[in-house]
Design goal:
158 residues; alpha+beta; OB fold (Dihydrolipoamide Acetyltransferase, E2P); five-stranded mixed β-barrel; 5 strands; 32% strand; elongated
Length: 158
């Protein structure tokens, strides 16, 4: 019986294995033509993390930047530490040693309406938060997670 199982397994492996890079999770011909709009479709194969627009209206603090203003002039904020205030619309904890927070403040422009923040702070969806952190542009973390604008090392402030 063991020999039969071994023979069947070996037959299946040799029949369906096409060598390194093959298998159900590997796409043989991934190119720009196959990208969907949700994937961004850029030359770098950078996918966009998709979020839904929430119905929120948050008054910014006195020295905060709105998400619309940040996205409209993102190059001016690249590498700078800024403050933003918004409502948590998505939270993923403990990924790559960080918590990933998406906030929205009710403002938007052509670039979007959502800001992703990496932090060590734990928050809850629906909570209104103010973060201070460094803005980075065109960050690609691999596995389809890339961000045109992201706040890194966000710290909770009042």
């Amino acid at each position: 019986m063991k020999n039969l199982i071994f023979l069947l397994t070996a037959t299946l492996v040799f029949t369906f294995c096409k060598g390194p890079g093959s298998g159900p999770l590997v796409k043989d011909s991934f190119d720009k033509k196959e990208q969907t709009p949700a994937m961004g479709g850029s030359d770098k194969h950078m996918a966009r993390v998709m979020t839904s627009k929430a119905d929120v209206k948050i008054e910014p603090c006195a020295d905060c930047i709105t998400i619309a203003k940040l996205l409209a002039d993102k190059k001016a904020y690249d590498g700078k530490v800024i403050k933003v205030k918004g409502q948590v619309t998505k939270y993923n904890g403990g990924i790559m040693g960080k918590n990933w927070v998406h906030i929205q403040d009710g403002t938007e422009n052509q670039e979007g309406f959502d800001l992703t923040i990496t932090t060590d702070i734990t928050v809850s969806v629906g909570e209104t938060v103010t973060f201070e952190g460094k803005i980075a542009l065109d960050k690609d973390f691999g596995y389809g997670y890339s961000y045109n604008v992201i706040m890194e090392e966000g710290k909770s402030v009042q």
